[in-house]
Amino acid sequence: MKFEDLLKKYDVPVPRYTSYPTVPFWSQIINIPQWKRVFQNQFHQTNEKDGISLYIHLPFCESLCTYCGCNKKITKNHRVEEEYIRALIAEWGMYCELMDEVPVIRELHLGGGTPTFFKPGNLDKLLDTILDNSLVHSDCNFSFEGHPNNTTGAHLNTLYNRGFRRVSFGVQDNNPIVQKAINRIQPLENVKQVTELARKAGYLSVNFDLIYGLPFQTIETIRKTVTDCISLQPDRFAFYSYAHVPWTSKSQRLFSELDLPLADFKLSLYHEGAGLFMKHQYQQIGMDHFVLATDDLYKAYRSGSLHRNFMGYTTQHTRLQLGLGVSAISDTGTAFAQNTKSLHEYYEIIGNGDLPLAKGCFLNQEDETFRKYILDIICNGNTYFGDQYLGQLQKYSFPILKELQNDGLVVFSPRHLEVTETGKNFLRNICSAFDLKQLRMVADQNRSVYSQAI
Asked: 20 to 30 A Cα–Cα from 367, which one of 86, 184, 356, 390?
């Protein structure tokens, strides 16, 4: 089948598989006593040996980026910082009571929103409370997301002094027309300056986030954006597909769908960028990352130890991820729990001394098995099938895999699956062959809850 025909066939709504089961299948009411038991059990199994991962969601932004689907609160009032930090510290205290021993933090990520919305002193206050009551693993990985327009030397130095060695800057696109459409005016000079500041402060890894599929992008503009960014020599690029989901992210209704590229052209934008990355010695890993061969992510990919969680691709494979803050997600390996997305509810529940959980999911053995298949494919491009649930594989997955094989996207046998070079463009579609929840669902088939695969 021609590549253009593959694009038309597989450009269908598909999850991004940051979790399995996917969020639409989570219960809207979580059993909090059960969650506490599962959390405690996993903590005691993993803390001493592996440590835990900690994600802190900092939701505030000074302006609205219309492409963004993250949970955020737009305000220029910086007085909100202290109230939010007090709530985070209170939530952390509740989990400290559950952990009942000193936590070993192996991975820590500040996401948003815009973490650098917060003053350096307030970030230091938050980290002071968390880190001074914890142990830091000898093989730790601390990172944060920075906005090139407001990340200062003080931000970088404060976080460096707390053990942060990796920073990710949201660049997205350098073209003024595209930037105006997405309401993110950000001169390249700002990106250059903050990258140099990070290097000067001692950061060992700098990542740029870029997005393809934004309104008004052309082959020429994506080529210039990628070339200009490569000239600044970051260690990593995350090259994300724009996810158009205006039914869940209302800000995306502020520009017309007619300004968005069609699937075949969108993939042309991706191949233009990907080709430039690889021409300049960046290695492709997973769905959307390009890294230098000296980067730890590439080494993990080569050794088969690459992992993926809600923070993205990582070299750390901790079995417990704790999410703090509004909308943050926690993952014990056998259960997911998400905090409320409402800032008002978050404050109210925290004020009552309760965990601010809104929904979640407890996995059974079948879920854990198929989650592993999906993670293997997303991280390593292959997976091996066990005897357990072979009947479910034969009934639901293998017929789809046979079609994917006929189209040249995978090579598979009853024991093993390998993604082809062509198939790397369709990883989400391949993962969907193991999405038993979705495959079994018969009701509400016409409602789109996911973004297009391409």
From this structure: 356
Q: Which of 39-43, 81-85, 238-242 has the lowest mean pLDDT?
A: 238-242
Percent pLDDT > 90 in the chain is 77
Q: What residue has token string 């931000």?
A: 155
pLDDT digits (tens, 9 = 90+) for 111-139: 999 999 999 999 999 999 999 889 999 99
pLDDT(306) > 80: yes
pLDDT tens digits, one per residue of 176-222: 999 999 999 999 999 999 999 999 999 999 999 999 999 999 999 99
Type of residue at 176: P
Q: Is residue 326 in some structural domain? A: yes
Q: Are residues 355 and 369 in the same domain?
A: no
Q: Are residues 203 and 276 both part of a single domain?
A: yes
DSSP conformation letters of 127-187: HHHHHTTSEEEEEEEEEEEE-TTT--HHHHHHHHHTT--EEEEEEE---HHHHHHHT----
- Check the CA dihedral 257-261-267-273 and report its sign: negative
Q: Are residues 380 and 424 located together in one domain of the fold?
A: yes
Cβ-based neighbours of 161, under 8 Å, separated by 6 or more: none
CATH code where residue 268 lies: 3.80.30.20
User: What one-letter code names the amino acid at 160?
Assistant: Y
| Number of domains present in the structure of the chain | 2
Lookup result for tokens 């769905």? 287
Is the peptide bond between 103 and the residue preceding it cis, with omega within 30 degrees of 0?
no
CA distance 101 to 273: 47
The residues with which 344 forms a beta bridge, in sequence order, are none
* CA dihedral (418, 420, 423, 425) positive or negative: positive
What are 351-404's pLDDT values in tens digits? 999 999 999 999 999 999 999 999 999 999 999 999 999 999 999 999 999 999
SS3 267: helix
Residues 215 and 294 reside in one and the same domain:
yes
Last residue of a domain, one of 316, 345, 362: 362
**Residues for the chain: how many in total?**
454
Short-list 449, 454, 6, CA closest to 262: 454
Give pLDDT tens digits for 7-58. 889 888 888 898 999 999 999 889 999 999 999 999 999 999 999 999 999 9
CATH number for the domain that contains residue 410 = 1.10.10.920
- Structure-block tokens of residue 190: 């700002």
Do 168 and 143 form a contact (C-beta atoms < 8 A)?
A: yes
Give residue 331's domain range.
Answer: 25-362
